[in-house]
Each structure stands twice: as C-alpha cells, then as structure tokens.
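In response to reviewer comment 3 from the previous cycle, which asked for concrete evidence that the modeling workflow produces usable outputs, we include below a single protein chain processed end to end. The sequence was submitted unchanged, and the resulting structure tokens are shown without manual editing.
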Amino acid sequence: MILVDSSVWIDFFNGVESAQVGILDASLGEVPIIVGDLIMTEVLQGFRSTRDFNAARTALDQFEYRDMVGRDIALQSAGNYRLLRRQGITVRKTIDVIIATYCVENSIALLHADRDFDPMEKILGLSVVAG
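The workflow returned the following structure tokens.
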C-alpha cells in the first residue's frame, strides 16, 4: 500500500516522464494506492479546464480515499514540525509535514518527487518508495 503525493500525481497528469511516475505506472493495478484529502485538493486545484478537472477527479476516484487530518494527526504533525525545526530543518509547507506524519502514524509508504520529504525520512522515519 502506498500514498502517492501530489508531486507525483501532477507529473503523471502532465505527462512528465520521471522515475516516480514510472513507479506509479507500474503500481497501477498491482499495489493498493491511497489518495488522501490533502493530496486530492493539491492535485485538483491546479486544473484550469473543467474537462481536465473532471477527468482527473474520475481517475483519482478509482483509488482508496482517506481523510488524512484529524485531531491526532494535527497534534502529532505540530510536534513533528517543531522537532524538524529543532533539528535545523526549515519546513516550507506545513501540508508536507501533515502528509509525512499521516504516513508514519499509519505505516504507509509515500511515493513522492519533493525533496522537502527527504529530512522527514531521516528524522521522522518516513517510509518512502524508492525512485
């Protein structure tokens, strides 16, 4: 089971060839893929045309959906953000800490193409799908 970050989905929908998109392609139908609320928002907000938005939404709706943020994840994410700051890591996007925390707390591997997750792998124990 993997959670695919918006950084990979955006490349996928834009036809970008990358190691991570290749892993996503190979995983389709073979590995359970999760789409979370935060990721769905990040991906779908970028579509300009209604037609493309609807096509992407239909594609994402094929996968298991999960609400990622609740009280427990919010509190743990705040703690993880603070831990990263104490380690000298500048977190550019709070949403990435929430995604990483969700994955850590639920033992789910993350497929991403965003270097901001690298320190979270080392410090928080985030499991990633190697690209």
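The longest helix spans residues 71-86. We consider this sufficient to address the reviewer's concern, and the full set will be provided in the supplementary archive.
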